[in-house]
Design brief:
CATH topology: Alpha-Beta Plaits
Structural class: alpha+beta
Radius of gyration: 15 Å
Number of domains: 1
Number of helices: 2
CATH superfamily: Cation efflux protein, cytoplasmic domain
Largest sheet: 5 strands, mixed
Distance between the termini: 39 Å
Order of helices and strands: EEHEEEEHE
Number of strands: 7
Strand content: over 45%
Length: 118
């Protein structure tokens, strides 16, 4: 799936992997987010991803030039999950829309774990 923008000079196609990388990078910048999570479906284990692997914790769908994003995150212990989620949605929506010129229709936050941060 690709995002498509038409300009007077031609079409621009944005791959879903690029959108996932950008959304993941924007997500880990948010206060209260320790990182992105990868889930091993076989074992049901949640793993904190390294900074260069943030797109693995993101699922992106593009239909009719609208973007749907699922973010699998690990939050810091002691933070308000609802406050982190609101900030995360706002930040990721703004950055992805500014980056792509496409509308973000929905962002789902899936909290996969909690970590104590020193």
């Amino acid at each position: 799936m690709k995002g498509r923008m038409s300009t007077n000079k031609g079409d621009i196609l944005i791959d879903a992997d690029v959108l996932a990388q950008y959304a993941g990078s924007a997500a880990v910048e948010c206060f209260g987010v320790v990182g992105m999570a990868s889930i091993n479906m076989k074992d049901g284990l949640v793993k904190l991803l390294k900074r260069e692997s943030v797109s693995h914790g993101v699922n992106v769908a593009v239909e009719e030039n609208k973007i749907w994003v699922d973010l699998h995150i690990i939050v810091a212990y002691g933070v308000s999950i609802s406050a982190v989620a609101e900030n995360l949605i706002s930040n990721v929506k703004y950055k992805v829309e500014e980056f792509t010129g496409l509308e973000v229709a929905k962002i789902n936050i899936l909290v996969e774990g909690v970590r104590v941060v020193d």
